Amino acid sequence: MANGWSLLISVIFIVVFCIVAWFFSPKGENQTVWRSTLVLSAWSCWLMWAITFLAQWHPLINPERSDLRPEYVNGPVKGGSMF
Amino acid sequence: MAKDTLFRSADMTLTQLYVANEIGREVVSALGELGTMQFRDLNPDTSAFQRTFTQEIRRLDNVERQLTYFRHQMEKNGIGMRSIHDFSNTMAAPSATEIDELADRSQSLEQRIQGLNDSYETLKKRETELTEWRWVLREAGGFFDRARGQTEEIRQSIDSSDDAPLLRDVEQANGSAEAGGQQQSFSVMNIGFVAGVIPRERMGAFERILWRTLRGNLYMNQSEIPDPIIDPERNEEVHKNVFVIFAHGKEIIAKIRKISESLGADIYNVDENSELRRDQIHEVNSRLQDLSNVLGNTKRTLDAELTQIGRSLAAWMIVIKKEKSVYQTLNRFSYDPTRKTLVAEAWAPTNSLGLIKSTLQDVNDRAGLAVPTIVNQIKTSKTPPTYNRTNKFTLGFQTIIDAYGTAKYTEVNPGLPTIVTFPFLFAVMFGDFGHGAIMALAATAMIYWEKPLARGKQDELFGMAFYGRYIMLMMGVFSMYTGLIYCDVFSKELSLFPSMWTWNFPEGYEPGQGTVRAERVEGYTYPFGMDWRWHDTDNDLLFSNSYKMKLSIIMGWAHMTYSLCNSFINARHFKTPIDIWGNFVPGMIFFQSIFGYLVFTIIYKWCIDWYAIGQSPPGLLNMLIYMFLQPGTVEEELYGGQGTVQVVLVLLAVVQVPVLLFLKPFYLRWEHNKARAMGYRGIGETTTVSALDGDDEDEEGGHYANGNGHGRPSAESEMDGGAMITQDIGGGEEGHEEFEFSEVMIHQVIHTIEFCLNCVSHTASYLRLWALSLAHQQLSIVLWSMTLANAFAFDGALGVVAIFLMFGLWFLLTVAVLVVMEGTSAMLHSLRLHWVEAMSKHFVGEGIAFEPFSFEVMLEEEMDELM
């Protein structure tokens, strides 16, 4: 589902978002504030996401637990909820 | 004309106004409503008493004092004031006649209130006295009755035995009276008495003094008055005691009177005869009755009067405050007696000039004056004040920047990116979906009930939160986002997507024996944020620390690069290319070749699947250290040719240091020498010294000194008044300071050292993002496991109660500790990252803030008084 291409796709998505934000920001005296805030927010959030994604792309360590019961098996497998 | 944006200060123009004397007040009043002009003081050498409108201000001061008096009286009598928010037209300018009426009215009202107050106080005092007297009569009566019984005893005791020498004289002198029996009185026995009231705390001293001065020759009786007595002068409750002192002889009685008066006791006349005493009590009671009727009437009249005043007091106060500030502003104008015009100089945003002109036209039309008000724009080289137009959303963020320093006129205003970067860096430290949601909800509530909350009284802490409600909203929203990225909701995980890890139990696995290692789902990376399966694992911190540390470095690098780019925009805007080539470019290369490279290696390392290519991943920290210690040798290679690349980068960085050091100062010297060689001299270099003083006050002074006209007369200076005023503007010419090479060099050396060292220390400083986010996460885990996790151990009815109670405790502590306290701490760290780490890269500061003459601002400042 998510692999290396996600990075490229996300960049394209953010660029498109920024273009849209730039041209569709409400006109008037607050236009600069709208543009700056939307574009900067988008890139900040993207940076955060990208760093997290990259950190888990080729992880060097795997999760380890010693308190699991065998019945847990894989607990909530794919998409399940722990709550 | 360019639009005013938050990106840099609005364009400012120095304007000159010629106002006909008759409409001076109306013009200033209209401009005060507009609130876009900052008037310069044109009579800086005139003291406050010598100015033109001192008389008017005095008169208004008096009215203000009267209004404040009404307010105090209302507070004293507990009468509420109609809030200023109830007046719809508070912003309408008052006319001169209205002001006069108001002054007369408040004068007469003051007299009336004062009269009522005086009589009320006198009556109140009288009432207190009567009340005290009544107590004395009542209590003293008891003493007398008891004392009478005792005289019987005394007499009997004397009759029976003769060992009471003190009383024997009495016996002998009044031997005949003994037979009277029933009508035995003290006067006959030559014993006098003093009765009165004294504050309870003085009782001890009073007794002691009496005992010492009279050597014990007295008989004292006292009792406490159960109800406190109200002191009419101070309006306080005082506890008092009634005392009756019996003593022998006139002198002693006189002495007792003196002592008690000096100690603040009130002495009342009490008759020893019980019949008369009863009459006295009756009389006192009836007088008290009458008095309380009169008092009630007076109080009602006073209250009615004050209520009447309270209905419009707030509006009057606004009117007076406005009027006073108008005259204070008029005092800054210079008066041209020959032409009967007032001349004013003011800074105004260029974009508002049209509005100003039309407003002045309106005032003129209303006054029906033929002489128009003239608005001239003056060209000046004086630095205009910095004015960043804000709205209620941007105000909080701009305040963050202004708290550090006012930006130089038209330099890049860091307030604009701060709208995002401040809450975002906060959120990196505060990342938790739940805590972010609480914060965002609180902010939303404050924004939703903005108006009622703004009107109410706010304590300091709430006032601060309310002022920064939009900052809080952004912080909350971003915290929710980073919380999702960190996969933390109140320290618990949120499994939005299928995990990239599956648990692989070894054969015959028993809990508590050995660890289970998760295996990766092939070819799948968790798409959004941290994988929730990392939660509660044994090596969770190992992974998240490495991740968050690198996150902080990359965030810091991005933030600082962004800020450094602003210095490029500044250099372009101020047209100083040497700042680009001498500061920005070498600085940028220096920073990128070390820390840009570090960021590159971090990302590069992440992108490589080290186990797939069968290499062990190299440590980045050692790599960076050995990059400088042993350039060229790389122990564990990250990529081919790494050694060469690193040598080139280190050399590139090192070469920038001399460029940073010498390029700018030597260029400036060359430029200066070239200008000199061509025969140019600095303007003002040979003329007066005052021209060199950049200080505002000195410039004003310079206007008298520089009669030789090195000021630049404006185009409109054909008018005499204009010429006189504009000359002093020229006095403030900037940029003509004498070129001092050593000074420039020292400045540049400091800048270079600071910049290079700061690149290192500031990058390290961003690691606080990691530290605080780690602390926040661990603290919320601890809170959960200490409260709610314990409650889950119970079951049955006890479990219900335990969970209910523990949830309360957990929620309370979550809000108080994790949201409020931790939030404050993360906010302060984010503040520091902006002020120190980011703004040091480009912010010049040294600007003068634009402080327009505005009724709105003035009233807001004094709002507390009016509420």
UniProtKB/TrEMBL annotation, chain A:
<dbReference type="Pfam" id="PF05493">
    <property type="entry name" value="ATP_synt_H"/>
</dbReference>
<feature type="transmembrane region" description="Helical">
    <location>
        <begin position="37"/>
        <end position="57"/>
    </location>
</feature>
<dbReference type="GO" id="GO:0000220">
    <property type="term" value="C:vacuolar proton-transporting V-type ATPase, V0 domain"/>
</dbReference>
<dbReference type="GO" id="GO:0007035">
    <property type="term" value="P:vacuolar acidification"/>
</dbReference>
<comment type="similarity">
    <text>Belongs to the V-ATPase e1/e2 subunit family.</text>
</comment>
<keyword id="KW-0813">Transport</keyword>
<keyword id="KW-0406">Ion transport</keyword>
<keyword id="KW-0812">Transmembrane</keyword>
<keyword id="KW-0472">Membrane</keyword>
<dbReference type="InterPro" id="IPR008389">
    <property type="entry name" value="ATPase_V0-cplx_e1/e2_su"/>
</dbReference>
<keyword id="KW-1133">Transmembrane helix</keyword>
<dbReference type="GO" id="GO:0046961">
    <property type="term" value="F:proton-transporting ATPase activity, rotational mechanism"/>
</dbReference>
<dbReference type="GO" id="GO:0012505">
    <property type="term" value="C:endomembrane system"/>
</dbReference>
<keyword id="KW-0375">Hydrogen ion transport</keyword>
<protein>
    <submittedName>
        <fullName>H(+)-transporting V0 sector ATPase subunit e</fullName>
    </submittedName>
</protein>
<feature type="transmembrane region" description="Helical">
    <location>
        <begin position="6"/>
        <end position="25"/>
    </location>
</feature>
Automatic annotation (TrEMBL), chain B:
<dbReference type="InterPro" id="IPR002490">
    <property type="entry name" value="V-ATPase_116kDa_su"/>
</dbReference>
<feature type="coiled-coil region">
    <location>
        <begin position="99"/>
        <end position="126"/>
    </location>
</feature>
<keyword id="KW-0812">Transmembrane</keyword>
<dbReference type="GO" id="GO:0051117">
    <property type="term" value="F:ATPase binding"/>
</dbReference>
<dbReference type="GO" id="GO:0000220">
    <property type="term" value="C:vacuolar proton-transporting V-type ATPase, V0 domain"/>
</dbReference>
<feature type="region of interest" description="Disordered">
    <location>
        <begin position="692"/>
        <end position="719"/>
    </location>
</feature>
<dbReference type="Pfam" id="PF01496">
    <property type="entry name" value="V_ATPase_I"/>
</dbReference>
<dbReference type="GO" id="GO:0046961">
    <property type="term" value="F:proton-transporting ATPase activity, rotational mechanism"/>
</dbReference>
<protein>
    <recommendedName>
        <fullName>V-type proton ATPase subunit a</fullName>
    </recommendedName>
</protein>
<feature type="transmembrane region" description="Helical">
    <location>
        <begin position="769"/>
        <end position="792"/>
    </location>
</feature>
<feature type="transmembrane region" description="Helical">
    <location>
        <begin position="424"/>
        <end position="449"/>
    </location>
</feature>
<comment type="similarity">
    <text>Belongs to the V-ATPase 116 kDa subunit family.</text>
</comment>
<feature type="transmembrane region" description="Helical">
    <location>
        <begin position="798"/>
        <end position="821"/>
    </location>
</feature>
<feature type="transmembrane region" description="Helical">
    <location>
        <begin position="551"/>
        <end position="569"/>
    </location>
</feature>
<comment type="function">
    <text>Essential component of the vacuolar proton pump (V-ATPase), a multimeric enzyme that catalyzes the translocation of protons across the membranes. Required for assembly and activity of the V-ATPase.</text>
</comment>
<keyword id="KW-0472">Membrane</keyword>
<keyword id="KW-0175">Coiled coil</keyword>
<keyword id="KW-1133">Transmembrane helix</keyword>
<dbReference type="GO" id="GO:0000329">
    <property type="term" value="C:fungal-type vacuole membrane"/>
</dbReference>
<keyword id="KW-0813">Transport</keyword>
<feature type="transmembrane region" description="Helical">
    <location>
        <begin position="647"/>
        <end position="668"/>
    </location>
</feature>
<feature type="transmembrane region" description="Helical">
    <location>
        <begin position="470"/>
        <end position="491"/>
    </location>
</feature>
